[in-house]
Amino acid sequence: MRLSLSSLLLLFSFSIFGQNLHQHVNPMIGTGGHGHTYPGATVPFGMVQLSPDTRIDGSWDGCSGYHYDDTIIYGFSHTHLNGTGCTDYGDIMLMPTMGNPMLSPKDYSSSFSHANEKASAGFYSVKLDKHNIDVALTASTRVGFHQYTFNTSGNANIILDLNHRDKLLQGEVRIINTKTIEILRRSEAWAKDQYVYARIEFSEPMQINKVRDTGFAPASVTDKFFSGTQLALSFSKKVSKGDKIWIKVALSPTGYEGAKLNMSEISGWNFNKVREDAEKLWDQQLAKIQITETNKDKLSIFYTALYHTMVQPNIAQDIDGKYRGRDNKIHKAEGFDYYSVFSLWDTFRGAHPLYTLIEKKRTADFINTFLKQYEQGGRLPVWELASNETDCMIGYHSVSVMADAMAKGIKGFDYEKAFEAAKHSAMLDHLGLEAYKRQGFISMDDEHESVSKTLEYAYDDWCIAQMALLLNKKEDYNYFMQRSQSWKNVFDWNTGFMRPKKNGGWDKPFDPREINNNFTEGNSWQYSFFVPQDIQGMIQAYGGASRFEAKLDEMFNSESKTTGREQADVTGLIGQYAHGNEPSHHMAYLYNYIGKPEKTTEKVHYILNEFYKNTPDGLIGNEDCGQMSAWYVLSSMGIYAVTPGLPVWSTTVPYFEKIKCNPDGEKPIEITKNATPESLKNTGGFYQNALSKTTVLNHRTIVPVPVIVAESKSFKDKLKVEIASQNAKDNLFYWVKKESSDNASENNFMPYNGPFYIDNSAEVWAKIKNGNDKSRNVTATFFKKPNNYTIELKSTYNPQYHAGGADGLLDGIHGTINWRKGDWQGYQTQDFEAVIDRQKEQSVTEFHSTFLQDQRSWILMPTKVEYYISSDNTNFILVGSVANDIDPKTDENQIKDFSLTLPKAIDARYVKVKAYNYGKLPEWHLGYPYNGDAFIFIDEITLK
């Protein structure tokens, strides 16, 4: 029998698209626990995510608006985030009620039961118990479609509340006619200035029967325009039992005309057809990877994971290509589609490499979006949301996405422009980059999360070097390859860990299990293996393959307990490996690089089996915009991108008997359980293509900086200083800079032959010079204390925030507004109290103590500070009290000197300082639902 090409294509299309793969998607996975997913209706990469909201308090587990433990629904809004750790979205909220219209959330909300709730790809339904209303939701790319069935007769209300979940900056409602309204919702939350325009069409004429607004004049239900920062309306209609009302809501980021245009996606009121169209879109998308599996739970886990990788990034342009740029102006996308929601710290690791395999066109679109944001906003995105840069998380990982696409030969964007933008991000001076460029690492003195930033900047710099290599930019290649070795400057060769540096040396005390502000959502264990750009160099740093294997084994076999700050993101512990957060995601694959692939397979398959379940709490951590699920999808295929930017996969034994990958317009890829590592690492043909196009250039390796060792940063009489390096053969040089005008010239450095002492405040400079190779300069600043005072703490500081111990409050060194650098002492659930011994009776006129406030981090000013004096350290006399005058609600970090000046000098040997803690966090605070306690942060006490 002979078949024509068209017949074969028809059969092929039927075999892929006729499988109803959407039936395997369970959007409830991740809605419980800490998954932070939402169950509502959306289509692949759609602008609309129409979903119920059960959380409006800003709580962490309510970031998506919904949590499976809840029993109350407040309404159905049209934008939601998938698995993030910060809360935002929830725009254009509608809620059906019956009877007297009420505009307060506690009044219009309703209880519900999971027994009456259904969720599938492109569809959601629930019964609202309070008024016996059945709600069904579906969507197209830019339009949400509601179907409300009223099971009792009476007055039906549709509540529109623009004061929902985040802060309303500007609200407008325009009444076009009894069936059509237009809305502007401008809001502030994680995205500081978000614009959402909407057009709402009702299937039936509706009458306004209640209004809440803050306009210039009292609103009337007959008005045609409403505005204000408080804005809610009720639209009503008499209904009989069984009546339905349908509502369509079209969104636009650009304006009312855009929303009107986007409404054309859905014509008429055929709800079932729109649902079927959404399901067909999902069938087409999910068919890009087909698995052979009979276990229904595994089918649901896999296809829900694939689904979760495809609900973002989100199209952010109107049908005609218009979008709101990072400059807040309206532009038109030419030759590409503009997207939003780029959780790049998470998704560069697995989600974007997956897209290079099955979403090549969209990968180019994502990158073109990056480049437009660079042109219109001044730099590449870090964590972009609704055309706002949130600057959440670290690194400049958009360069990883671009380098990976270039290395894999993906076309459709300007390689030269991409390199220009990448280099621009790397050459900025913010977020620790100035210090990183100058000295080859970031210390605690320079910036918080210093170790993580050093490591991730180094990887990103390697990515830029790969881009330079492809573009034959040899000088740039050499420069960024040298920067990519900066990880060596935070690797402690004695302990075998990446460690924070402070004042030229290693910060002490050090516990690799401790979660603190030197690492990003993790600890040293979870960052000590992040050198994806130089894995062989990392193995050698650990002492070779056997020692590296032992270190990996130690990590996986350690006690599954962290110390330090409570970090809700660090979950899914296997020893100190934390699958619930992204820094660990590549680690199981590192066994491959020392010839132990069986250990990789053992760990990967354990994670696949134990940390992904077909239940609401079936994700071990935040979904993080598809990254948690991308790990599952790729690993079940037997591949993972340990080093995005290198066009080769790391491999493991595939999880399913047979996997068929169907990239757009390309030959299908078949993977079987007994596929060889050699064939798996070239999945997609990237590796072979890259080998034929590039050559590797030699580059110089860096000399890691030495460390300056001293007991403390401040001293009373004299201080012993030592200099050390990891190589006994290194030639060490140093210089003690005593005058601020001195320049660091080569002539000032002298050979280091052993410990030396300083007896005055000074800077110590050190470096290594081995022939023509030399390290960067490293510096330490030491201060001779201005007096011989001692201090006795009556309170106990949080060990996370010790600021060098008690003497740190008297060393004359003042902390900066960035408290995460470690210069402030923190006290929680207690007042602060300390006694300063001045060693003898001395006159005093001025009392100073400096405190910091960052209310978002639970750090509030003390309510008041009292100063006492004594001659015997037993009987104290109150000499004055200073009340706080800083508003606890202010978002800006503040420093305040609670100073007291006496009209005349008094004599005292002992001075007591007592600061009264704010206490329990108030109801307006995000920490209130957790029964949170405020911190006091103090740095310096000065007496004059």
Kindly list the characteristics that best describe this protein.
22% helix, alpha+beta, 20 helices, 944 residues, disordered N terminus
What is this entry, summarized?
The protein has 944 residues and is an alpha+beta fold. It contains 20 helices and 54 strands.
How does this structure look, described?
- With 944 residues, the protein is an alpha+beta fold.
- The chain contains 20 helices and 54 strands.
- The strands form 16 sheets. Strands 6-7-8-9-17-13-12-11-15 form a nine-stranded antiparallel sheet, with helices on one face.
- Strand 11 (167-177) and strand 12 (180-188) form a beta hairpin.
- It is globular, with a radius of gyration of 30 Å.
- The protein starts with a helix and ends with a strand.
- Mean pLDDT is 94; it is low at 1-18.
How many helices does DSSP assign?
Answer: 20
Mean pLDDT: 94
Radius of gyration: 30 Å
Distance between the termini: 102 Å
Structural class by secondary-structure content: alpha+beta
Low-confidence stretches: 1-18
Going across the major beta sheet, what is the strand order? Answer: 6-7-8-9-17-13-12-11-15
Number of strands: 54
Helix content bin: 10-25%
Q: What would the principal axes of the Cα set say about the shape?
A: globular
Major beta sheet summary: 9 strands, antiparallel
Question: Hey, roughly how much beta strand do the residues contain?
Answer: 25-35%
